[in-house]
Design brief:
heterodimer, A: alpha+beta, 2 helices, about 25% helix, globular, B: alpha/beta, Hypothetical Protein Ychn, Chain: A, five-stranded parallel β-sheet, elongated
Chain lengths: ~80, ~180
């Protein structure tokens, strides 16, 4: 049974290179409440390393990472 | 131990704690931007904006060749001396006029790089400066560079909270910074 994630905010960051995905996500997470989830759509391959690094530093959590056709989907939960 | 001795020791300890507080490292990045090259200053701003996202406070200290990039291309000032006028003409007027440190090839390389950046959606240097301002990146400009090259404050960009300072003001921040960089 597939686990469903309730998304509270979708951020389309396709086509944006470094450092924009991290800059935008760090701004966007302030618009949701603690416990809520952002779905970020990113095409920059560097984000595969950068978003996890940002999450570790900022103390948030990646619930799931999906890699599709050139698009990486991150489900990020705000923890603080 | 007498009360006097205890009081003295306590005072000593307090002074030590105060000293430690002054040099305590904060989540801060302090950067000297010495270069006026497009590629290097772009890297400085990518790092600065990324650092804000990573939860760091950021201070950029523009000096020497970095200083003219913070001039506003639409502003003109009068009353400069001969050397000031020469520097004014020979150095890039604003971030848009910065050139690559390598492969410039008489400007051809720089314009090729700029069109490539546009195609790949990479923010221009002017856009990065705007974004840094929005993110609260602090900019210091070295007063000595301004004075040496004859730049006037009225010809600089309107960057929120910009300050014209000496190296001690930058170092006060650098002492407390976990990361310090020179570009």
């Amino acid at each position: 049974m597939a686990e469903t994630i309730n998304v509270d905010k979708v951020m389309d960051l396709k086509g944006l290179p470094c450092p924009m995905p991290v800059v935008k996500v760090s701004k966007g997470i302030k618009d949701i409440q603690v416990g809520q989830v952002i779905e970020a759509l990113i095409t920059d391959p560097g984000a595969l390393a950068d978003i996890p690094a940002w999450v570790r530093t900022s103390g948030n959590e990646i619930l799931k990472t999906e890699q599709g056709e050139g698009v990486i989907k991150f489900y990020i939960k705000r923890l603080k | 131990m007498t009360t006097e001795e205890i009081e003295k020791q306590l005072a000593d300890l307090k002074a030590q704690v105060e000293g430690l507080k002054r040099t305590q490292q904060e989540d801060k990045l302090s950067m000297i931007v010495f270069s006026g090259d497009l590629d290097k200053v772009l890297a400085a701003f990518v790092t600065a904006t990324g650092a804000v996202a990573m939860g760091l406070e950021v201070v950029m200290y523009f000096t020497t060749w970095g200083t003219p990039l913070l001039r506003d291309k639409n502003k003109t000032v009068h009353g400069k001396d001969m050397m000031g006028i020469m520097f004014g003409h020979m150095l890039p007027k604003g971030a848009g006029a910065a050139k690559l440190s390598k492969l410039n090839m008489g400007g051809m390389g720089t314009s090729m790089m700029k069109s490539l950046m546009k195609k790949k959606n990479v923010a221009s240097l002017e856009e990065m400066i705007k974004m840094a301002a929005e993110l609260g990146v602090k900019i210091f400009i070295a007063e000595i560079s301004m004075d040496l090259m004859g730049f006037k404050r009225e010809e600089m960009i309107d960057y929120p909270g910009v300050e014209y300072v000496g190296v001690a003001t930058f170092l006060e921040q650098a002492i407390r910074s976990k990361i310090t960089l020179f570009l």
